[in-house]
Structure formats: C-alpha cells, structure tokens
Design a protein that fits this description.
Elements: H1 3-19, H2 37-44, H3 48-55, H4 64-73, H5 78-88, H6 106-113, E1 119-122, E2 128-131, H7 133-138, H8 140-144, H9 151-157, H10 159-164, H11 168-183, H12 190-202, H13 204-211, E3 221-227, E4 231-240, E5 249-255
Antiparallel strand pairs: 1-2, 1-5, 3-4, 4-5
Helix pairs in contact: 2-3, 2-4, 4-5, 11-13, 12-13
C-alpha cells in the first residue's frame, strides 16, 4: 500500500467514526450526520484545520498524542484504536501505560493445563507467568526451582543454562535478537529499559550482543537440550499470541521426530 492510499484510508476511517457519533445537544436540522469536524476538534482539543486535512488525506504528520486525543474523542475500541495508529504509521502512547497484569491470562493457563508436552507463558518482560509440570522438568534451573522467572536472566546469567542448551551462545544471541523485536514496540516502557540496563551490566555476552543491534522475529524450529537427568532431548518449538492479550506469548515444545 502506498502513502497516498494509506492517507486516504485514514481519512475515510476518521470521517466514518466522526459521523457515527451523536452531538451532545443538537440544535435544529443538521446537514452533517454525527459530529461536525469543528465539534470533533473541540472534543479532541486540536485544530479543526488538522481534522479537515487528515480526513482529506493530505500529507500531514499528526503526532502520536494528537492521534490519541482523536481516538479518545471518537470513543474508539481497542481494536479500532490500534487500526487508527497502524494507518497513521504511529505508536500509540497508551500502549506503554498499560499496567502489567497480576495474573496470567486465562487463555494461557487453560491451554497449558491441557498439554502433556512442555508449555509455558511469557509476559511482556519475558517473565514466565505460567507453565506445566513438563516444562518445569525440562527447565529445572528456570521453572523447576523457583529461583529465576525471567527467561533472559535465566539464559544469560544462570550457569545451568549453559549445560542445558548445547548451542548456548548461538541460542542466547538468537533469543536476544527476538527480544529486541518486542523491545522495539515498547521503547517508552521503563520496565523494559530497566531489564536491558540490568542485563547489560551483569552479562558481558548480553552487552556485546545488545550493541550489535540484531533484530529477528520469533520463530519456531528444532530445540535441543542436554538434560541433567533425561539426557539428550529434542523438541519442535511453536509460539502463539493470545488474541485478547498480544503482550503475552504461549510457547509449546512438542517432541521432535527422531532424525
């Protein structure tokens, strides 16, 4: 999609949602359905000219906070708001204000409870928020003993991780590059910055890999382990995102077929 088409779609989206809102106190006959542009601008605390230009698909650069005020004034749902920011090519500042849930999403815990193979959930900081018994057995130094719940801290700081993962350094670098993809969507998250700062100070490999700036999307594939009790193990890793909580992940490790 080119910029012109994207701006046109953004303008049509704003106009449609403006026209579906009823004015606070309509007076007499109105030729315009819903809110007038001037009324929307007043609600959002922005210039009516900006509203006009955006709806007309002009090449204007609305700031994230301007778009956030428009989203609030239009009473957009979470899905509609995300669509607005996607069309505008901006990051929603409200994403970084969302508090971390006290408990894992029910969709994660319910799914993990039905699985016999290792499965666990990660929150946005890559802390394990739920797991099953098979995962606790596979990761005794992470999920089995309760000492360390953050996956990055386990991989980079726990000596047992080097014994468990045969290709430890390659996997550690890969995991960090995948984490950076998540980090790029939450630059303003103070918790993310604190985690990165701490690991940079505590792990030389983390500091070196972080400054290399590698970014990779999370992918599945063969994962090999050298378990202290069960010996060599191989799994296929699959990752999923709950529709209602996209800041969480479900990771499932299914037994790999013998090669």
């Amino acid at each position: 999609m080119d910029d012109l088409e994207q701006r046109r779609m953004l303008g049509e989206f704003l106009r449609a949602h403006r026209e579906r809102l009823a004015p606070a106190a309509p007076a007499g006959r109105r030729r315009t359905p819903g809110l007038r542009r001037e009324e929307l601008a007043a609600r959002a605390g922005i210039s009516a000219t900006w509203c006009t230009w955006i709806e007309q698909g002009r090449d204007v650069q609305a700031s994230p906070h301007t778009l956030a005020r428009l989203a609030d004034a239009l009473l957009l749902t979470r899905a509609e708001r995300a669509y607005l920011f996607e069309l505008a090519g901006r990051r929603d500042p409200a994403e970084h204000d969302a508090p971390l849930a006290a408990e894992a999403p029910e969709a994660l815990t319910a799914t993990i409870a039905t699985l016999d193979c290792p499965a666990y959930g990660l929150d946005r900081f890559w802390n394990a928020c739920c797991w099953n018994a098979a995962a606790a057995r596979l990761f005794p130094g992470w999920l089995g003993d309760g000492r360390q719940r953050n996956q990055l801290r386990f991989i980079f700081l726990e000596p047992s991780a080097r014994q468990l993962i045969p290709d430890w350094e390659d996997r550690a670098r890969r995991v960090l590059a995948e984490f950076r993809a998540d980090y790029s969507r939450r630059f303003n998250d103070s918790g993310m910055r604190a985690l990165v700062d701490a690991l940079t100070a505590e792990s030389p490999l983390f500091a070196e890999a972080w400054h290399e700036q590698a970014v990779l999307e999370r992918e599945g594939g063969r994962r090999r382990f050298r378990h202290p009790e069960d010996g060599p193990l191989a799994f296929e890793q699959h990752s999923f995102t709950p529709a209602e909580r996209p800041d969480y992940k479900l990771v499932v490790l299914t037994p790999a077929a013998a090669s």
